[in-house]
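User: Can you model how coenzyme A sits in this protein?
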Amino acid sequence: MASEALTVSSSKKRRNRRGRRQQDETKNMIRLAPERPSTPTAISIESGPTIINSHELQLRFLNPGDLPEVKRLCHEWFPIEYPDTWYTDITSTQKFYSVAAVYRGQIVGLVVAEIKDGHSLPKEDSEILASTFDKSSKIGYILSLGVVKGFRKQGIASFLLENLIAHLTTGENSHDVKAVYLHVLTTNNAAITFYEHRGFRPHLFLPYYYAIGGRRRDGFTYVLYLNGGHPPWRLLDYMSNCCQICLSVLNPWSLTKAAFRKVNLAWFNAMPRIRQIAHGTTAVFS
Ligand code: COA
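Assistant: Here's the modeled complex, given as C-alpha cells:
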C-alpha cells in the first residue's frame, strides 16, 4: 500500500502460459481497443473457485476511463486518501504498471507498481539493496494490490502478482530489477500473510509511517529479492557467513578429504627419496 507483490508450480505453469498469452492479448487490447470499464454491477460468482481458470477472467492495463472505478475500489480497500493526481497518474501515465483483472467486464482486482532507480529511493527504503550493486540496478515498488471482497481467496491477487513478477524478470533490462517491495500496515494480517506465503520477507519496521484519520499508524516494508539481489550485509550476516565457512571447513568429510590430500602429497614428495634409497641399495648388493 503506497505511503504505501511467488511461487509458480505445474498448474501454475499453465496459468503462467495463460498469463503470458493474456499479457500479449492485454497489450493488443490496449494498443488496438482499450476496454472501457463497465458500470459496476453486482456479479454473482456462481463459477466459485474456478474463476481463475475462466476465460472470462482477463488482465488488461488501466486506462483513463477506469479512474472513477479505481478510485471507488481504492476507497473501499485502503484507509488512505490518495490525491486525485495519483489516480490520474496510475490510470494514464506509462510510468506505472497498472493492471486490472477483469471478470465479465467488471474490475475485480488490480495491481499498481512502478520501477524505481535502485540508488535513489526514499531514505526509509534506501537500504533495501546493497550498495555493491551498480548504478543501473532497479527496484520494483508495489503501490497497490487489491481484490474485490466477493472475489478474494480465488487466486486473483496471486495471478496479478505472478504477472507483475514476470514483467519484472523477463524482457529487456529485466535482469537489472533486483527486488520488488511494498509498504503495508502492521495490522493488515491478510496482506502480510499473502505476501509472506509468496516469498516476501519483512525488511523494516516503520513506526508512525502512515497518517490515517489524523492518527499515526505503523507500517512494515516487505521485500522479495530477484535476479541475485540482496540487502546490505550487516554484522550478523558477516558472523553467520563466517560460521558457515568454519562449519564447512570443520565438517568430518572435508577433514578426511584434507588429510587424504596431505598424505598423498607427502607420499608423492617422498617418492624420489625412496627411489634414491632403493637405487643405492641395489648398487651395494650388485
Ligand atoms: N480456493 C480457496 N482458496 C484459494 C483459492 C481457491 N480457489 N485460490 C487461492 N486461494 C488462497 C490462496 O492459497 C491464498 O492463501 P495462501 O496465502 O495461504 O496461499 C489466499 O487464498 C489468498 O490468495 P489470493 O486468492 O491470490 O489473494 P486474494 O485474491 O484473496 O487477495 C489481498 C489478497 C491481500 C490482495 C486481498 O485480501 C485484498 O484485496 N485486501 C485488501 C487490500 C489490501 O490490503 N491490499 C494489500 C496492501 S498492498
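A couple of observations from the model: The CA atoms of residues 208 and 218 lie 5 Å apart. Residues 1, 49, 77, 145-147, 152-158, 182, 184, 188, 190-191, 193-194, 197 surround coenzyme A (CB under 6 Å).
User: Helpful, thanks.
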